[in-house]
Amino acid sequence: MMVNIKVNGKEYKKDVEPRMLLVSFLRDELGLTGTHIGCDTTNCGACTVLMDGKTVKSCTVLAVQANNHEITTIESNDPDLNAVKDSYVEEEGLQCGFCTPGMIMQSYYLIKNAEGDIDEDYIKKNLRGNLCRCTGYRTIIDSVKKAEEKLRQREEINVSK
Ligand code: FES
Ligand code: FES
């Protein structure tokens, strides 16, 4: 089946098997291997990407379901997403890094969709679908807090321009 999917701002028209998963489309068809496959059963969140601005687990979405939709992956150069990536580096929110692309995409989403300030409970609740076997989550929570600060500062600068 022919699909037309916009990924990180670029349109891709490809002929795919109807059973192809979105994560396989991203990794195998487009070479965007930043999106990881951890469990393949919707449990770990390593494959998290944005579809039309909302997080989805791309091992649970078929490529044909993404037809005519817009996907954002960890490779995106969106300045706000880059600020979240920087926060994970600064706060050491990763060890092996396997869960990290999915964690960052989910963190970006939870910050962008928060109503008001975010607290630790909100972060934990919104990261519950993303598993990390290394960090113990403390530095991940700190990374999200740092990212929220950075995004708020960026927003204040943009408003004052
Ligand atoms: S690989 Fe998709 S949730 Fe684990
Ligand atoms: S940093 Fe290794 S699984 Fe999260």
TrEMBL record:
Q: What name is this protein filed under?
A: (2Fe-2S)-binding protein
Task: Check the record and name the Pfam families matching this protein.
Answer: Fer2 (PF00111), Fer2_2 (PF01799)
Identify the PROSITE patterns for this entry: 2FE2S_FER_2
**Residues annotated as domain 2Fe-2S ferredoxin-type:** 1-77
Superkingdom of origin: Archaea
Signal peptide as annotated in the record: none
Q: Which UniProt keywords apply?
A: 2Fe-2S, Iron, Iron-sulfur, Metal-binding, Oxidoreductase
Q: What is the lineage of its organism?
A: Archaea, Methanobacteriati, Thermoplasmatota, Thermoplasmata, Thermoplasmatales
Keyword Zinc-finger found:
no
- A molecular function (GO) term: 2 iron, 2 sulfur cluster binding
Q: Which CDD domains match?
A: fer2 (cd00207)
